[in-house]
Amino acid sequence: MKEIIAYFKGDLEAAEKVINNNIHSTIKIIPSLSQYILESGGKRFRPLLVLASAALCGYRGEKAHMAACAAEYIHTATLLHDDVVDESDTRRGRTSANTIWGNEASVLVGDFLLARAFQMMVQYLNADALRVMAQACMHLAEGEILQLLKSFDINTTIEDYYQIIFGKTAALISACCEVGAILAGASEKERRALRDYGKELGYTFQIVDDCLDVVGDPGKTGKPLGNDLKEGKFTLPLLLALEKAEGKERRVIQEAVLENEFTPETFERVKAIIMRHKGVEGARKIAREHALSAMNQLKAFEDAPEKEYLIKVAQFTSEREA
User: Fold this and answer.
1) CATH fold for the domain made of 2-319
2) How far is residue 71's CA from residue 116's CA, in Å, rounded to a whole number?
């Protein structure tokens, strides 16, 4: 990823300035809390996709920087809201904003960032780009609500899982790529290709994230292992294992999810079942398939450095360890 970031260094720096310069408010908690979460180790993955997609279609400039900022604000707002819903104490290895400032402030500052994002998009983007981002926000909310409804439900299906991760992750990533194409005045074919590239990339990203919750290095991911299970989330590694699990194993999982006090021992019992049935291995394989599908969407474009970099983004996402 280093060479990709280096290639888009100027655009990323311009977008970063926009991100930092638009959280101003006379209410001091807004810039303080916003700056805290925005500086908490985020990779600016979504802004990079906006910039790279626009560049692939022939545009680099201010509108891309504004769209990149809006995408990061929307993503950051969802993180603030998620930490409240999940009652999280940490985010990216740091104390979560809701732990420091409280749930109410975190929710309301998240609302501010969403409002600022749409204010900027109305000012700088066309109606088509605004529609795509608004639709992504609707899907975000739907994904989070469905995840909440399916929490602690052992009857969650793989179809349910995909509906959840499309909403909570893939929809916004897809929108970032499509908006980049819109800014460049790309053809419908190119828009569709980047939209589908983003969707497949989003699936890859979330499935790998869910694998890292089982076998990742907390020192690299910034998150404790087993967090998804603790929150009652049935992710793909667990669902693949459940397909092969016997009655006793299913009972172990059900009891673990419903335990009043989630402990490391609880997690290890479930992890053993996941590993026995190669849940992580199977999920990683599916993630690689989604990454390949993402790369195939880029056949709609002529060879160019931006195309090669987007291919490498998909490869890196499927192989990442943090």
Assistant:
1) Farnesyl Diphosphate Synthase (1.10.600)
2) 11
Using CA of residue 272, residue 277, residue 280, residue 283, what is the dihedral sign? Answer: negative
Rounded to an integer, what is the distance from CA 281 to the centroid of its chain? 21
Residue 134 CA to residue 130 CA, distance in Å, equals: 6
Tokens of 171: 């929809």
C-alpha–C-alpha distance, residues 133 and 175, integer Å: 6
Residue 91's DSSP bridge partners are 94
Find the angle CA(101)-CA(35)-CA(103) to the nearest 5 degrees.
Answer: 25
The token pair at 150 is 């399916």
Instruction: Give the integer Cα–Cα distance in Å for 53 and 48.
Output: 8
**Given this model, what pLDDT does residue 91 score?**
76
Q: Is 217 exposed, middle or buried (0-12, 13-18, 19+ CB in 10 A)?
A: exposed
**What confidence score (pLDDT) does residue 1 get?**
81
Which two tokens mark 244?
A: 């092969």
Model confidence pLDDT, tens digit, residues 213-237: 999 999 888 888 999 999 999 999 9
Structure tokens at 2: 């280093």
Query: What are phi and psi for residue 185, nearest 5 degrees?
Result: 70, 35
CB atoms within 10 A of CB 264: 11
